[in-house]
Design brief:
Length: 217
């Protein structure tokens, strides 16, 4: 069985950019992650280091008890301080901070996602979703919407705003908006961002929604 990363290595992994997986750390820390197959050096300048798929899986796995010097064996390490990890707003969250700081975070996350598309395609194209988006459908669609200026719904659905939800259909999310024009605007944004969309009606309720999935060609 592969030995789990050390506490120091785990901190570097957890601090990676939430979208691109770009790493920050000392040369020795990053070199150790590369040796273990959890990171790679990008061949193009500026030759930054990024998490591999295995590294992303480690980050998405809850922390296991780690061996901290001086700690009692089997005792979980204390939780790390909140690193301010960006999270796309899928709609329905409680009221959260907005304004210029949130706009900067969203813009930075979207630019990072476009860079990830460029890096992971042989032709460097950014017009179609990448592998990360296909494994994080709800977050990816929500980021595309918020980056384009759409407003996520709050906890009170009556106030309006988009809501992105998972569906039983593989590689598809449902996007809800109270108004038909707003719903069509969400579909247009996702089309532009590389998704294919269609508008449907929920049989039981008659509610219209957009079904969106990442475009492959």
């Amino acid at each position: 069985m592969t030995r789990p990363p050390t506490a120091a290595q785990r901190r570097v992994i957890d601090a990676a950019d939430p979208v691109t997986g770009r790493l920050r750390g000392t040369e020795s820390q990053i070199a150790a992650l590369v040796t273990r197959g959890l990171a790679f050096r990008h061949p193009r300048p500026p030759h930054d280091h990024f998490l591999t798929p295995a590294g992303h899986r480690v980050r998405e796995t809850p922390d296991a008890p780690s061996e901290t010097p001086g700690a009692v064996p089997g005792t979980p390490a204390p939780p790390a301080a909140d690193a301010g990890v960006f999270a796309a707003r899928v709609g329905g969250e409680e009221a959260a901070a907005g304004g210029p700081s949130r706009a900067r975070e969203v813009r930075s996350a979207w630019e990072g996602l476009l860079e990830l598309r460029r890096m992971t395609r042989p032709d460097g194209a950014v017009d179609r979703p990448c592998g990360w988006e296909r494994t994080h459908l709800v977050q990816a669609a929500a980021l595309a919407l918020e980056a384009a200026g759409h407003r996520p719904a709050g906890a009170d659905a009556a106030a309006g705003g988009y809501r992105v939800r998972a569906t039983p259909q593989p590689e598809a999310v449902a996007v809800h908006e109270p108004g038909p024009e707003a719903l069509r605007a969400c579909a247009a944004t996702l089309d532009k961002a590389g998704w294919q969309t269609g508008e449907y009606t929920e049989p039981r309720t008659g509610v219209r929604y957009v079904l969106a999935s990442p475009r492959r060609v």
